[in-house]
Amino acid sequence: MEETKHYDVFVIGTGIAGQTAAEVCVKNNLKVGIADNRAFGGTCAIRGCDPKKILLQFTELIHKSQLLIGDGVSKLPKIKWKEVQKFKSSFTDAIPLSTEKKLSNLGIEYYHQSPIFQNDNQVLVEGKLISANTFVIATGMIPRPLKITGNEFLGISDDILNLKKLPKTVTFIGSGYVGMEFACMMATMGSKVTMIEHGSKPLKQFDAFLVDKLVTHLETMGIRFIFNAEVTSVEKLKKNLKVNYLLDGKEKSIKSSKVFNTAGRVPSIELLELEKAHVKFDKSGVLVDDFLQSVSNPHIYACGDVSSKSLPLTPLSGLQGYVVGNNILKANSKKFDVPCIPSTVFTNPKLSSVGYSEEEAQKRFKNIKIYQGDASAWYNAKKENNPVYAYKILVNERTNVIVGAHLLSSEANETINVFSMAIQQKMTVLQFKKQMFTYPSYSSDLKSMLKDTD
Ligand SMILES: Cc1cc2nc3c(=O)[nH]c(=O)nc-3n(C[C@H](O)[C@H](O)[C@H](O)COP(=O)(O)OP(=O)(O)OC[C@H]3O[C@@H](n4cnc5c(N)ncnc54)[C@H](O)[C@@H]3O)c2cc1C
Ligand SMILES: NC(=O)c1ccc[n+]([C@@H]2O[C@H](COP(=O)([O-])OP(=O)(O)OC[C@H]3O[C@@H](n4cnc5c(N)ncnc54)[C@H](O)[C@@H]3O)[C@@H](O)[C@H]2O)c1
């Protein structure tokens, strides 16, 4: 007979969503347990946003220097990749232990295994049968395995982040956020990069006018894009990997020393045996209602990337963890309203977006006004010799309220936050133009983007 244990709340997953939900509950005197089957700390801190940005700051240094060669820069900085990796590891290596310490100090008991549901309110973990009044599923997402021969030769984003040296040639299958960011990083560092995408363009969620400009720029950096292609298999050769694909019905192939699967991520639910707990799920994740409670089992909530109501972004996962914690404490008192959430693809230049896309705004409002332009001749871009700078701002014509902003620039990840606040505050163009910004700065350009041209 297994040892049994009971918790008020048992959380599965120690990423931002799971940690936030657990913390809210334990700070309100509930008995909380948590489990993770990998090192504690989650994707963002160990295998995602944070280590990625550490690596990218070095490639950004190279990119900025490349643009200024002959105008004051005579030689590109020499990046020692081994040292870069060591620096990055000094952040990531510390996360698991500090997370365990934090959980322990809060009085949360933890387990290092994937729990397996036994029934509606019991799991088996580390040989213990654990019951809880409420379970929180916060297991995030994992790369979607490609069902092709040779899938085992493909690397994933974890492998890219830990590369000991940069490959001379590299192919990415899939050109979403992950593929585009790492392709840009490696191309800047001198790798010959090919992107194979089954759609007709990359970054489908982003504004086409800006995506086209980004792609054109990345092509001038040497990245080769192959669109509308279906990868059929990957073969291991003596030195290289060979990717076979179909393009316009013709069989083609490309060789490179590394190939990465960047074709999207799927909810990490396979090991949990959710069927035994009557938890409904589909390809979007655990099906939840507006309170982030399972639609089929009231003992269970889901938050973060794994919930059907998430957009896989760190700030949203944290917010969902907070909502779940509060709904456990105060019987479904907080609905999860999708906030106005900005997002950035960290390429060079960066592509950022907040609020409605042009297509969404067209559907939602009778008339919209579009402020769109190429700002590469503006001072900010020119002082960097940066050939790419563009924008599209959407305004509800009836009310003059700003409803969407899309930016492509070296500082778009910061300036998009200004538009995010404006949209949340339902600012009109006039109110926005009354704001004062520092000069010279990319923020000071934002008002100029809202100038009437006629
Ligand atoms: C390469 C990369 C770069 C990214 N960059 C950004 C960025 O710049 N900005 C941004 O906003 N977002 C970024 N994201 C997305 C962001 O990392 C996620 O949205 C966020 O980490 C999700 O948090 P979470 O808590 O929901 O899940 P996670 O952080 O993934 O945590 C889930 C935890 O559950 C554990 N787990 C999984 N299955 C089980 C199981 N069966 N049993 C027990 N434990 C389990 C995992 O080990 C993990 O620790 C990036 C993602 C990747 C992959
Ligand atoms: N900067 C950020 O905020 C950031 C960075 C990385 C990831 N993320 C989050 O993680 C999520 C996952 O990112 P991702 O890049 O893994 O997925 P994604 O869904 O953004 O992109 C996957 C791409 O692969 C393509 N694809 C799918 N199957 C394919 C196939 N068989 N062959 C060729 N191409 C194929 C898709 O058409 C798409 O363009 C994102 O939605 C994002 O929310 C965010």
UniProtKB/TrEMBL annotation:
<dbReference type="Pfam" id="PF07992">
    <property type="entry name" value="Pyr_redox_2"/>
</dbReference>
<dbReference type="GO" id="GO:0016491">
    <property type="term" value="F:oxidoreductase activity"/>
</dbReference>
<feature type="domain" description="FAD/NAD(P)-binding">
    <location>
        <begin position="7"/>
        <end position="316"/>
    </location>
</feature>
<feature type="binding site">
    <location>
        <position position="305"/>
    </location>
    <ligand>
        <name>NAD(+)</name>
    </ligand>
</feature>
<dbReference type="InterPro" id="IPR023753">
    <property type="entry name" value="FAD/NAD-binding_dom"/>
</dbReference>
<keyword id="KW-0285">Flavoprotein</keyword>
<feature type="binding site">
    <location>
        <position position="197"/>
    </location>
    <ligand>
        <name>NAD(+)</name>
    </ligand>
</feature>
<feature type="binding site">
    <location>
        <begin position="174"/>
        <end position="181"/>
    </location>
    <ligand>
        <name>NAD(+)</name>
    </ligand>
</feature>
<feature type="binding site">
    <location>
        <position position="264"/>
    </location>
    <ligand>
        <name>NAD(+)</name>
    </ligand>
</feature>
<dbReference type="InterPro" id="IPR016156">
    <property type="entry name" value="FAD/NAD-linked_Rdtase_dimer_sf"/>
</dbReference>
<dbReference type="GO" id="GO:0000166">
    <property type="term" value="F:nucleotide binding"/>
</dbReference>
<keyword id="KW-0547">Nucleotide-binding</keyword>
<dbReference type="InterPro" id="IPR036188">
    <property type="entry name" value="FAD/NAD-bd_sf"/>
</dbReference>
<feature type="domain" description="Pyridine nucleotide-disulphide oxidoreductase dimerisation">
    <location>
        <begin position="341"/>
        <end position="448"/>
    </location>
</feature>
<dbReference type="InterPro" id="IPR001100">
    <property type="entry name" value="Pyr_nuc-diS_OxRdtase"/>
</dbReference>
<keyword id="KW-0520">NAD</keyword>
<feature type="binding site">
    <location>
        <position position="53"/>
    </location>
    <ligand>
        <name>FAD</name>
    </ligand>
</feature>
<comment type="similarity">
    <text>Belongs to the class-I pyridine nucleotide-disulfide oxidoreductase family.</text>
</comment>
<protein>
    <submittedName>
        <fullName>NAD(P)/FAD-dependent oxidoreductase</fullName>
    </submittedName>
</protein>
<keyword id="KW-0274">FAD</keyword>
<feature type="disulfide bond" description="Redox-active">
    <location>
        <begin position="44"/>
        <end position="49"/>
    </location>
</feature>
<dbReference type="Pfam" id="PF02852">
    <property type="entry name" value="Pyr_redox_dim"/>
</dbReference>
<dbReference type="InterPro" id="IPR004099">
    <property type="entry name" value="Pyr_nucl-diS_OxRdtase_dimer"/>
</dbReference>
